[in-house]
Amino acid sequence: MQIRIDEDRLINELETLATFTDAEPAANGTAVTRIVFTPHDLRARAWLKSLAAEAGFAVRQDAVGNTFIRWVGTDPELPAVATGSHTDAIPHAGMYDGTVGVLGGLEAMRALKRSGLQPRRSIELVMLTSEEPTRFGIGCLGSRLIAGTLEPARADALQDKEDSPLSSVRAAAGFSGTLESVLLPHGYYHAWVELHIEQGPLLEREGLPLGIVTSIAAPAGYRFTITGLGGHAGALLMPDRKDALCAAAELILAIERHALATGAIDTVATVGTCDVHPGAVNSVPSRVVLQLDIRDTDPHRREGVMQAVRRDCDEIRKRRAVTIAEELVNADAPAQSSAHIVETLESICNQDNISYKKMVSRAYHDSLFMAQIAPIAMIFIPCHNGVSHRPDEYAAPADIALGTRVLAAALAKLASE
Questions:
Q1: 1 lies in a domain?
Q2: Separation CA 25–CA 28 (nearest Å)
Q3: Per-residue pLDDT tens for 233-251?
Q4: Domain range for residue 269?
């Protein structure tokens, strides 16, 4: 079976998808801002569905907007083989994160159809809702609900910065029904394979065109609220201060120190937001809210970092006379790729003389949660300088096409089982 990827069409579609954006043009690449359920997100969804319909595939959506594009197999009662990713983008991001997996998945299905394949199992592409945490503060919203790792009531109560709950936002976007209906049973999919840019530098550094992901790191999110005593920047004397921002600065550095102290390359911790109240140059900060993202392939090592951070919190509280409240946003387990799917990908690469690297995904993806209901694996392609979540994020057309071809071959093999 000859699998021919229409590289020009695929790149054109990626470029078209990038035009559905709220971002101002960037001087150093293509800037994309596409927040879930905003007008540009809804236009992108409608456009994707039109491409699927044009290709002759069936389309359905669930109550949170996960979009399922299915090529019905000759034995439709069997669990399907699936691929997918996301199309939402954080503010001022790039045009390849997630989108390569969605549009590459669609092109893989079209290429197999053009080849004359009649799959035994149905093949399904899923565009998953809100992989990015931008609007509702928690990532992988759609895949969490599919996997049952997020309570539907808690999900519907999530609020955006305008205090609008998910329940009303999704209804206004045209997605009705109960979130309980989003859950898919274990075994619904025979296999799940996600194509994605690496979002790191290893493949490019080693001159390799493909990565096969063997595991996905475990992410956790925490919110720290530090409360002190505010006052006039000139009148509040230094010995009397309980500066919440100074305490927060110590906490941020403690987090960095303890993450480094593990000595493990797979331990990473980032304080990505710092909201200071009242936020005036001539006012001593009385309250600071920090959001921490900490990830590791070993959840016990991740928790060890947090225990060390908590001990430092106790010391900072006492010495600076502030309060520090910790809130767990999410704590997820790592995912292991299916040995069978990894072997399938390796056999495809070996047969076609494609060099590859077996590797860990330190960024988390929807596949982390799809692993709760199906055997999973991921295919990585290089991205220039390892850059992602920036306008200068870039993946070469040839690498995108190669990743799509390997994905297509894997879907064909797995669908024949």
A1: no
A2: 9
A3: 999 999 999 999 999 999 9
A4: 220-331
